[in-house]
Amino acid sequence: MKCLRPIGVALGCTMLASGAMAQLSITPPAQTPPPAKKEAPKEKPKVHTPVAKKPAPKPAATPTPTPTPSPTPPPDDPNVDLVYGAYQRGMYKTAFDLATVRAQNNNDAKAMTMLGELYANGLGVKRDYVKADDWYKRASDAGDREAMFALAMMRIAGRGGTVDKDSAVKLLASAAKLGEPKAAYNLALLYLDGQTLPQDLKRSAELLRMAADAGSPEAQYALATFYKEGTGVPKDLEKAARLLQAASVADNVDAEVEYAIALYNGAGTPRNVPAAITLLRKAARQNSPIAQNRLAHVLATGAGAPVDKVEALKWHTVAKTAGKGDPDLDDILADMSPEDRAKGEAAARKWIGNNVK
Question: Is the pTM for the entire model greater than 0.85?
Answer without folding.
Answer: no
